[in-house]
Amino acid sequence: MPDLNAFLAPNAVAVIGAANDTSMLRGRLMETLLGHDYSGEIFPVSRTSREVMGLKAYPTVGDIPTAIDLAIIIIPAQFVTETLRECGRKGVKAAQVITSGFAEEVGEKGAQQQAEIRRIAEEFDMAVCGPNSEGFTNTRAQLAATFSPAVAANGTSLVPDYRRDGFVSAIAQSGGIGFAYFDRGRPKELPFNYIVTTGNEAALEAMDFVDHLIDNDESEVFLLFLEDAKSPAKLVSVAEKALRAGKPLIVSKVGRSDSGRRAAVSHTGALTGDSAGYRAIFNRYGVIECNDIDEMVDIAASFSRWRTRLPRGRRVGITTGSGGAGGLLADIATAAGLEVPILDAATRAEIDQHLPTYGSSQNPVDATAQAVSTIGYARLNEIVASSPMVDAVIGICSAKNPASLRRVQDGLAALGRETTNPILLCSYTTPSRDSIELVNRCGLPLLDNMHGCARALVEMAGYHEVRERFLKRPPTTMPSVRSPRAKVAPRLTRAGRLLCEYEAVPLFAAYGIPTAGGRLVTTADDAARVADEIGGKLAMKIQSPDILHKTEAKGVELNVSGSIAARDTFTRLIANARIFDANADVRGVLVQPMAGKGREVIVGVKRDAAFGPMVMVGLGGVLVEVLKDVALAPAPLSSDDAISLLDGLRGRSLLDAWRGDAPADVAALCALMVSLSQFAADFADEILEIDLNPVLVHEAGAGLTVLDAIIVKRQ
Amino acid sequence: MPDLNAFLAPNAVAVIGAANDTSMLRGRLMETLLGHDYSGEIFPVSRTSREVMGLKAYPTVGDIPTAIDLAIIIIPAQFVTETLRECGRKGVKAAQVITSGFAEEVGEKGAQQQAEIRRIAEEFDMAVCGPNSEGFTNTRAQLAATFSPAVAANGTSLVPDYRRDGFVSAIAQSGGIGFAYFDRGRPKELPFNYIVTTGNEAALEAMDFVDHLIDNDESEVFLLFLEDAKSPAKLVSVAEKALRAGKPLIVSKVGRSDSGRRAAVSHTGALTGDSAGYRAIFNRYGVIECNDIDEMVDIAASFSRWRTRLPRGRRVGITTGSGGAGGLLADIATAAGLEVPILDAATRAEIDQHLPTYGSSQNPVDATAQAVSTIGYARLNEIVASSPMVDAVIGICSAKNPASLRRVQDGLAALGRETTNPILLCSYTTPSRDSIELVNRCGLPLLDNMHGCARALVEMAGYHEVRERFLKRPPTTMPSVRSPRAKVAPRLTRAGRLLCEYEAVPLFAAYGIPTAGGRLVTTADDAARVADEIGGKLAMKIQSPDILHKTEAKGVELNVSGSIAARDTFTRLIANARIFDANADVRGVLVQPMAGKGREVIVGVKRDAAFGPMVMVGLGGVLVEVLKDVALAPAPLSSDDAISLLDGLRGRSLLDAWRGDAPADVAALCALMVSLSQFAADFADEILEIDLNPVLVHEAGAGLTVLDAIIVKRQ
């Protein structure tokens, strides 16, 4: 791995392509770079100028007399690879390639040149970021290696000088968005330390920077913008590392093309789009997904302050001097998934001492404009934050004018240091710069959107929950020695691309996955004999890898009773199959006992192109087919994973007591999901999709019946 | 009706309670009032001072030598009514009562004093706003009758002086929120003409002001904040008038207490909360509901510009110089309900002339930073807005620096004048004040949040649709002379509080509502005879106003066949009813033919406490019971209303062809909803709730069967 320190915190920088003309990006970059008080050395490199913005310019990087840590390359595309090689030869440790026109170009040439950049980076073990990047900024080193106007010198320091911790890094594949995080976050006093924009990622990827910064303990919170993860495995391992370290990743993932759905063979494949794999990984590792730049900033601002004092639940206290604003926030908080409980009597009594008779200490605590000005924002929020009924507080204020905040500055600072429940101040008027800085100096975030505040609390509480569960979780194990993989593998290999139920069932059985039993019959006589042996009412189903939708092919008959009916049914099903598809490879008819009553569930597996096998679960025909109410998680699953996956379904309560039925056997369903996930993990490279559909989950204690099953192998 | 003009645009104003001390609200109000260039006369009234802020003060309003249009009253609560009476005697036409401590107080006294304010207003025909109000502002008259810091003089005019139309009024029950709209909207160049905060609404209500401003043609767009509508009928009539006039109401409605649910008798009652009535009225009249202050401002800014050029559909073209921002917006737009279609070949060819090979003209049109600076924002958006494939355009830009906008200022102005498709510019960097003013002077809104832009387009397209439908709709008629009301009324009056199916069916039948038929039997012999007469398989159901949940009471038997079984069943059902509730008033057993297959629907009526009878519809057991997927609209319904109500259900596609079934008979379902709505409207004062549950909707052409029905009368 190349030296990312040389990239992020260089002592000497060459700007290859430096220019005086600030109407060009090359000139703007120089202007931005020189506008800040960077303490390292800057060497312009120019083919045409002897001097750039007062600095001596060199014809080539090789001409620079001293060692260079970082080369910033902003020259026409056709010269980039040769220049990069020159850097390598000089021993330059890192390069930021700004130039566009590589893999984003139509045609082969750009892609080839980009591949060449990667080869050069490897050859010289150089830390190369880009091409097609907008550059990066190290705020504490005051190094703004970019033409982005967001970090142009404007009299405001790049990072609030009073912050000592809680630093935020923005790492983005898009330069525009990466610097937009800074542009919107800095006015809210968000302490960015790095903004890195990775462009086409010929060599270094966004996740390499996250990885490095977690290890170096420099950043506590990450804002990420991803169009795709070049190395999905790296995304997974870095996400896991970040969660372990308690450093939240707040990610905007764009490009939800669901073209993959169209080609799917199974139900499971058709129900889950390309983005579902990302979402499953994000859910598992507590990655916070958000696509609103302002809300991402609010979430980051909240974590930056409260990462060591996260809310332990979703109960929020609301304080306000405006009854209307309090009511509005209560609605917004409730809709976001927070609770706004009535406060305990002791807390209310303490508040009531300060309120006029037309105030309310219930929650929202409407202290009225009058009482807010006597009791003050600090004491009011302190009282509510100490209530045993809340996990966090949102304190509504009007911060247009800083006077009422300045009056209680010491109290706010004490609150910032001492509160155990996190507090967000939220101004319903546009807060002034002075107010924002004042509150932040007191150790509290001051936000200005109620939705952003509610969302931040929901995400902090959720992150805390996921992380607690994660830290208790046994490490994901490789298949145990007792895994039936070795026994099952040869049979899977021998089978065709599509295994229908009679073929899939024995493989599943080896993994302890319960099946409906039954026998494959190939003649009418067989059917009659088996019917007698099984007895009772029977289900009979055609078995052919060419007939996936059996109902459509009239290939299923239910409630068949007795040997005579079984014989007739066999003949009819075979005939129907021939009519449906004369060339179908018909293997016979599966005869099974009819299953008892139960709730309909679909359980499946889908091999995500990026992240490997995922287990899917969905409830009931209507919810799955009309609302696509399904949930996905990477295999293998623990029992806890299975439970929380089920809990994520909108229709989860269907499995509870419902319409006079007892609760369903959720334990059996979870066991099925865990076993299937182990099967999927064992054959991650072999299997494309699995459907157990439908599964009938009987009442608690009565288990479940898998009514149909297919396995689709990768081609 | 008192003279709202005297209130909103007075020539002479008395400030009763005026003070010099700006640490008090009374002094702040004077300071704010005098800080602007209001051309009318201002007379302070003070018991203690002879002069306030350089103006001669009078001991009482009666001492003022000239006529007064408006009195602003900001004195202790106990003096308010007497002072108001004094104003009345002097002939003051309007009063703004700021003082708090009336109906919001605990106890009777405040409420009584508030009622007294109303009586005085009526006695003197005075336009009284408040009490407990934060005051109001008429921006064009530069009259800021409030202590709100949001309109304190700060060097910026209260309203952009270049605007000639598209004015926005903010009318709010909460002073904090009302002025917050202005505080957040003014920096975006939103042209507010009035901000009115109505407080406790002893006399004038928010809707009175909206009504007046629609008539006076002064405002084109309304931002409203409502905690409750004091006169629901006024809300309905003003909402209808606003829609007819094409002046959108953008409303934040808070206080969604759903306590009403708990007391409900029927399913319909239990499924719909107190806020459902508001939502139904809003849906019918195109009222836009939003509870995010920033988003409300964005929606208002968009309507303010494009109210006469609303998008005719939901297809949006996206232009960008940042590929990342374009991808992000495409995701956001799609999630918000917009389409991002690929552009037509002609438009693409025109764009492609300007793009480097690594740009894209598909949509989002990623022109790249390079091409954006050559082609310019004006021309780029013009080309896309002319595409026949789009109904509107969002043009992403970086407006931190106004230079690139200033360069194409004339083009932007031409675009503002000439485009037929609305265009929103959206800056991903924080736009500078100069940029915002520049773009707005060109006739285009410049917003800064992608979600806000997407939401604004969705709301504009939806408003256009609702209004087109509304303008084509025949006026809601009173029950026609052929209404069966007269025939049905006496029977409804005679019945007890709860009518079970056998009693409800004949009433429904008079309105053409199809029922399952069948006959009430009261003896086992009767049951046997009727079973023979009807023939085939039968449903038998206990009939008792005391047994609502028949299944629970084992009061239903299905698939009863023949007279012997019918006789046994009768005896058993009656016995079960006795076991369930020995005191139940059992009327007999209803014997009906079994219905054919169909999709399960619930149709009901609920009398909303504020808005009268509402028709409810929901699909399928699971969707209704687990997800509460129901929709509500005020009775009576037209056929179009019924169709759009159904279309609002998440599970609507269940009525289409599904799982091998043909489409359901939607026409029959709509006819049922229309007939039931007429019944509900005819008996608006008599009926509390109606359940038709379940209704089986058969395949298209085969109609439907109402399987059970109850009517709950008001007590």
Q: What does this entry look like structurally?
A:
Two copies of one chain form a homodimer. By secondary structure, chain A is of the alpha/beta class. The first copy, chain A, has five domains: about 1-135, Rossmann fold (3-Layer(aba) Sandwich), CATH 3.40.50; about 160-290, Succinyl-CoA synthetase domains (Rossmann fold); about 310-470, Rossmann fold; about 515-595, Dna Ligase, domain 1, CATH 3.30.1490; about 600-715, ATP-grasp fold, B domain (D-amino Acid Aminotransferase, Chain A, domain 1). Helices cover about 40% and strands about 20% of the residues of chain A. Chain A contains 26 helices and 30 strands. In chain A, strand 28 and strand 29 (about 705) form a beta hairpin. In chain A, helix 11 (about 295-305) crosses helix 19 and helix 15 (about 375-385) runs parallel beside helix 17. Chain A starts with a helix and ends with a strand. Residues about 255-260 of chain A have low confidence and may be disordered. At the A-B interface, helix 5, helix 12 and helix 24 of A face helix 5, helix 12, helix 14 and helix 23 of B.
